Amino acid sequence: MRNNLVVVSFFLFFYSSLEVNAQLRYNSDPASFLLPEEPPVTARIFASGLISTGLDEVNGSFSPDFHEFYFTVFHRNDISAVLVTRYSGGVWRYPEVVQFSGIYRDADPHVSPCGTRIYFSSTRPVEVGGRDDVWNLWYVDRLGDDWSKPVPIVLDLNRHERHPTISNSGILCFQADYGTSLVTFDFLATNIYTALPNVSGWDAPLKMQAPVNSEFADYSPLISPDERFLIFASNRPGGFGNSDLYISYKNEDGSWGEARNLGGGVNSAENDHYPSLSPDGRFLFFASNRKLEQPIPAGRINYTYFKRVALGAGNGLNDIYFVGTSVLDL
Hints:
The chain is mainly beta and 330 residues long. The chain has a single domain, classed as TolB, C-terminal domain (Neuraminidase, 6 Propeller), CATH 2.120.10. 10% of the residues lie in helices and 35% in strands. The chain is built from 2 helices and 24 strands. The protein has helices spanning 2-26, 303-311; strands spanning 44-45, 56-62, 68-75, 79-88, 91-92, 96-97, 106-111, 117-122, 136-143, 146-147, 151-153, 161-166, 172-176, 191-195, 197-198, 201-202, 206-207, 218-223, 229-234, 244-249, 260-261, 272-277, 283-288, 319-324. Strands 2, 3, 4, 5 and 6 form a 5-stranded antiparallel beta sheet that branches. The chain is globular and about 65 Å long.
């Protein structure tokens, strides 16, 4: 009995020491647990096992103080929710569904530059008795440690609008399939739109012109806080795979320059999309469904191997990746 008490005491001391050490190490810089000191020049998987897992994760967005990381988890496009992992008590906590999500299909969280608002997409009805099969744009405002009741951004109740991002001046940038006659979502008709702020919300959306939009699918835009550049995904020809990330810089006359592919250090042969920036502008996050090479063990393959390959990051579902913004040539 005494030996058992000694073992239990040892483990309690061990784990409490880990937490104390975590507090000492990360209280001043919690992001250092998730991000390296030097941003990488080629894309790496982000927080494998904590955020990037065998599930389908996209849309990563940090709060300005790096104490919260919001993202989306999908399951076969039938279920989706906005999740958050929080830094508390010196450690990063296990992800959980945020208070305003978990009933309808929700996705695409984007924390505003000031951190007091989260923009997101949802299929929840905009009106009582309204449709619950259309993606529209919404936002919640911070209320202390919680969030307000979701507020709809009413633009078009019958077409799909997703992936909202916003600049410091309040310009809203998002994707929509306005240019289709189909009843269901039309990916090939997806284009990028902006809406200027006014006293009551936003003006009517404006379709961005070429070279941002093309005759192919252009989607998941990210407008930089200072509106200097736009990063987006497109399946236009000439890329590395199904969808690649591109960047366009704003010209002095306000027009947008040629869209440049972000290259092989970012893009892959699969889908690379849903970009976001870290609050300090040093890291670019995005989602990719690329597969990671899994070494085949010597001898017989066992069940543990199958679980690790099938249920771990890099299994062919979307994971969140990150890379240094030096790839943007700012």
